Amino acid sequence: MNTPPPAHPPAAPSTEADDAALDWFVRRSGGLFEAEDEAEFQAWRAADGAHRAAFARHQDDWRALDALPADGLRTLRQNLADDKAAAAACTAQAAPRPRARWRELAAWTPQAALAAVALMVSCGGYLAWNLWQQQALYTQSFATTRGQQLEVTLPEGSRLRLDTLSTAEVAIYRGRREVRLPQGQAMFQVAGDAGRPFDVLAGPLRITVVGTRFSVRYTPGVPGRAGVQVAVEEGRVRVAQAGHSTANDAAVELVAGQQIASDMTGLLGTVSAVPAAGIAPWRESRVSFDDTPLAQALAEFERYGPAHLSVADPAVAALRVTGTFDPRRPGNFARLLPQVLPVRLREQGGEAEIVSAGR
Predict the structure, then answer these.
(1) Does the pLDDT value for residue 78 go beyond 90?
(2) Where are the alpha helices (DSSP H) in the chain?
(3) Is 36 exposed, middle or buried (0-12, 13-18, 19+ CB in 10 A)?
(4) The predicted structure's pLDDT at residue 249
(5) Which CATH number belongs to the domain containing residue 224 in this structure?
(6) How many CB atoms sit inside 10 A of residue 111's CB?
(7) How many helices (H) and strands (E) does the chain have?
(8) CA distance to 163, 169, 304, per residue, from 148 (Å)
(9) Which helix (H) or strand (E) holds 245?
(10) 3-state class (DSSP) for residue 282
(11) What's the DSSP call for residue 281?
(12) What is the secondary structure of 67-125 as a DSSP string?
């Protein structure tokens, strides 16, 4: 009985000659190879026997398509059709990053796509399968400035919302979806796709889901908040250190209404309950403090804009505050402080220093 090719066949080790031969083979198969390109190719081929041998292997791979089982060939054709549809959606959503013209053709045109199929077959088992699988269908970076928020819909249907001073780097592949969060806070509403898990990489942690709503915070520059915090609003996620798979025993699974935090090294704390209102409250212009040092609270306000508040006395900076506030109205927070803490405001030139009430 004919069987389709395995989902992740082994990839043979690649050499510099193999990589160059792959480039030439795809370019020549794209249908837009010109006379000067052919001259350059022939010069490369004549320069080294390893070049000729590598290119011959790719030609053999093409011919080996004839021997591919019918079911396998249908699977590959379907994958290419899916890729073409995904590419069209990606192009409609955002312009691709600048790349060499032939690489764009290799990624998206039917002729070059057919050449890519040929490269999957080799004497060692699907030589370029790994390259094909790892080629991103969509990449895009998003960032917000101080005080700004941003909401975007990704080509595969997931929604991403960024808080102030946040950066997200998105990459969508054939078999997975990945977002890197170098800094900031983000809320994710992930479109279900069991065949393509959704990974978020934030500092030392990896968070993996299939379809859910959850928030991730990674603000290494904020005192007391240098680790990663994950909270789940709907569905479930698995959290592990970035260097480990979320499928291993060290991963922690969270369900709706749960949260977990790590330190800068990725050491996970304990799972705790979180009310719905406590998950990404910044979406509704709120910041919440629970027995938080005053200095840390001021740093949180500064993320959203100039608070014009400062504290120099370590004893005052260590005082604890609890409550929910509008981060864009630090003046309201400042006026409330003397009512709940033994402090007063010493104002000068539009700035206010928070000092001990006894001074």
Answers:
(1) no
(2) 16-29, 35-47, 49-63, 70-93, 101-108, 110-118, 129-134, 294-302, 314-317, 330-340
(3) exposed
(4) 61
(5) 2.60.120.1440
(6) 13
(7) 10, 18
(8) 7, 17, 8
(9) none
(10) helix
(11) G
(12) GS-HHHHHHHHHHHHHHHHHHHHHHHHSPPPP--HHHHHHHH-HHHHHHHHHTT--TTS
- What are 108's two structure tokens? 């998206």
Domain, as residue range, for 308: 285-356
Domain boundary among 91, 111, 134: 134
Judgement on whether residues 146 and 130 belong to the same structural domain of the protein = no
pLDDT at 96: 41
The pair of three-digit structure tokens given for residue 214, joined into one six-digit string: 């959850």
- Identify whether residues 145 and 267 lie together within a single domain: yes
φ, ψ for residue 44 (rounded to 5)?
-65, -45
| Structure-block tokens of residue 206 | 């990896």
Residue written as tokens 């069209």?
88
Q: Say if residue 298's pLDDT is above 70.
A: yes
Task: Write the single-letter amino acid at 297.
Answer: A
Q: Position 156: which residue type?
A: E
Cα separation of 269 and 145, whole Å? Answer: 30
Q: Both tokens of residue 244? A: 């480990």
Higher-confidence position of 51 and 27: 51
Whole-angstrom distance, CA of residue 338 vs CA of residue 205? 39
* Alpha carbon distance 140, 178 (integer Å): 11
Q: How much is the pLDDT for 107?
A: 41
User: How much is the mean pLDDT over the chain?
Assistant: 79
Q: Is the pTM of this model over 0.70?
A: no
3-state secondary structure of 257: coil
SS3 295: helix
Q: Check pLDDT > 90 for residue 100.
A: no
Q: Model confidence over 253-278: pLDDT tens digits?
A: 999 999 999 998 899 999 999 999 89
The mean pLDDT value for 121-128 works out to: 42
Structure tokens at 330: 């630090």
